[in-house]
């Protein structure tokens, strides 16, 4: 009842609330490379054009208040980076294995430019998909050509067999290779584990079940499939932390774990697809056992949806955070003037969802699917709301104390020159406490400059300098350092502008 009262109040007030200040909040956006959904906008762009698109995307999302980019680096057993394990993706050049010309490393460029703007880069992998379309041409050196027994076709796509032990090893090698070579902030999987069901077709894994699962799960194929996905998640969770302890591991599952009709622990939904029963992904188990650091369920339904109501699901997922981070995936892509559901014909529902999640304990932020939709005219009123009211100040991604909670030392040597403030990095204790980003606080002349209030944040940057587009205001500026897990240092000495 209490939850319903809060929802009703917000429903009527969501368009008239004043600008909000939230200090700790994940504000992300997905950037899909598969099928050129978000980036690059089409195949065959020269590197200079690809890089120009990267900068346009980053500047737009930074302006909208976002602090994290979830970039699809492995759309279909391929790569947007040089790899000895898998070929270059066709979504760059138009041909799988095609090398950017003139040469550059797209992932390295993404990491560099994202961090420069004080934003995290989460590397998004699709673990099992090999081909988006089985008619596509694979390079002769592709791993599935060397080991055809590692995969199978389902519908018009090809997938790795999740129960094959060598597939576990290979996927782990692919992911940890990126963790080793690139300064990413997190490894990210979405909702694609076992494929979504196709009516009239069976997943062709009976032989694999006989070979690898029959002895342990003699009568239950479903349990074996869940075991397979459990295994790769547990292996990766350990391998990532062994490689770089500060790199996070997050999952963005389909929005319903199980319906209450199927399980007393499930949500009050009537979804035709669920993670547990259809995709064989027991997300709640992974969160509860600490195999992952965050869950980001895709809640792409509106408030009042008859089978999957947004706020019911938001509260349900919050109740299953188990002390780890919980963010919500939101769906600006659904906003269309000709949307089938009236709730998506304008921006009211999306604004309402952000207002709701901010009232729910254990929900720590949100992520938008997906980047390209912010260029559409239907989203312009929403971006204005983000900039002026919903996210008027930069936010810090919440720390993860179960990984590390030791803060770095504060910056030193703060000085100014015209419209630029510069400082020196603090002395590093170790890599975990290395200053990654810097928070710039501004205080008017009569403000208490010893407090780190969200409304005083004027910037979060990844360099040792802050540029003000206009002349620095009279008052006091102070800088705090953030380490790799967003633990915040004490404030620097004050810089007073007369």
Task: List key phrases describing it.
498 residues; alpha/beta; TIM Barrel; Immunoglobulin-like; 9-stranded parallel sheet; 4-stranded antiparallel sheet
What report would you give on this structure?
By secondary structure, the chain is an alpha/beta fold. It folds into two domains: 2-390, TIM Barrel, CATH 3.20.20; 412-497, Sandwich (Immunoglobulin-like), CATH 2.60.40. Helix content is 28%, strand content 17%. The protein is built from 13 helices and 19 strands. The strands form four sheets. The protein has a nine-stranded parallel sheet with strand order 10-9-8-7-3-2-1-12-11. It has a four-stranded antiparallel sheet with strand order 16-15-18-19, with no helix packed on it. Strands 4-6-5 form a three-stranded antiparallel sheet, with no helix packed on it. α2 packs parallel to α4 (106-116) and α6 packs parallel to α8. The protein is globular, with a radius of gyration of 23 Å. It starts with a helix and ends with a strand. 43% of the residues are buried.
